[in-house]
């Protein structure tokens, strides 16, 4: 069901964007994302793109990309938990607006020696008149490099795009004997 801007008040749009941001956070809090869940409330437009400076300068057209957001998020969460069994969100803030939202997620977990490894991820999401995502950007704090070095053995930025990163994630999962089964 499409929700057009004409049917939603400004307050309803802002509240819907808040729910979208919070559903991202709650998927990690509940650890549903490790089991293949995706973010409630997130609907992507056919022309939706993803961009992160951590993955080069190219836009990823989500409809054309061979791996779903659900599968990549699940693989990431499962992989991080191999090294950091208590990996989870440590904090979250969001700022909804009429055309999307910004969010800050603080993630972290402890290694086998009890040392906390954490980083911040920043998301910027823009929606169309039907509150479908048209653009999603993520940025990470510098601590993400150290986190990835420990969790998957390599860090970016991956200028060739997300494939080398996802290959390192898949390799770590394979080494740990983990298979992802998505609903």
Summed up:
The chain has 183 residues and is α+β, with helices and mostly antiparallel strands. The protein has helices at residues 10-29, 69-83, 143-151, 163-175, and strands at residues 44-51, 60-61, 88-97, 100-110, 116-127, 133-140.
Describe this structure in words.
- By secondary structure, this protein is of the alpha+beta class.
- It is built from 4 helices and 6 strands, in the order αββαββββαα.
- It has helices spanning 10-29, 69-83, 143-151, 163-175; strands at 44-51, 60-61, 88-97, 100-110, 116-127, 133-140.
- A 6-stranded mixed beta sheet has the order 2-1-6-5-4-3.
- β3 and β4 form a beta hairpin.
- α2 (69-83) crosses α4 (163-175).
- The longest helix is centred in the first third of the chain and has 20 residues, at 10-29.
- It is globular, with a radius of gyration of 16 Å.
- The mean pLDDT is 89.
């Amino acid at each position: 069901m499409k929700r057009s801007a004409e049917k939603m008040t400004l307050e309803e749009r802002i509240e819907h964007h808040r729910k979208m941001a919070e559903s991202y956070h709650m998927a990690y809090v509940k650890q549903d994302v490790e089991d293949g869940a995706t973010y409630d409330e997130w609907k992507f437009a056919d022309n939706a793109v993803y961009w992160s400076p951590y993955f080069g300068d190219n836009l990823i057209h989500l409809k054309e990309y061979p791996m779903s957001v659900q599968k990549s998020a699940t693989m990431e969460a499962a992989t991080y938990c191999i090294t950091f069994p208590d990996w989870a969100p440590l904090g979250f803030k969001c700022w909804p607006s009429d055309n999307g939202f910004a969010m800050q997620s603080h993630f972290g977990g402890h290694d086998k020696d009890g040392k906390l490894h954490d980083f911040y991820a920043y998301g910027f999401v823009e929606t169309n008149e039907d509150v479908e995502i048209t653009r999603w950007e993520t940025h990470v704090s510098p601590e993400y490099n150290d986190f990835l070095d420990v969790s998957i053995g390599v860090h970016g930025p991956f200028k060739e795009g997300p494939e080398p990163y996802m290959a390192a994630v898949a390799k770590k999962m394979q080494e740990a004997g983990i298979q992802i089964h998505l609903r």
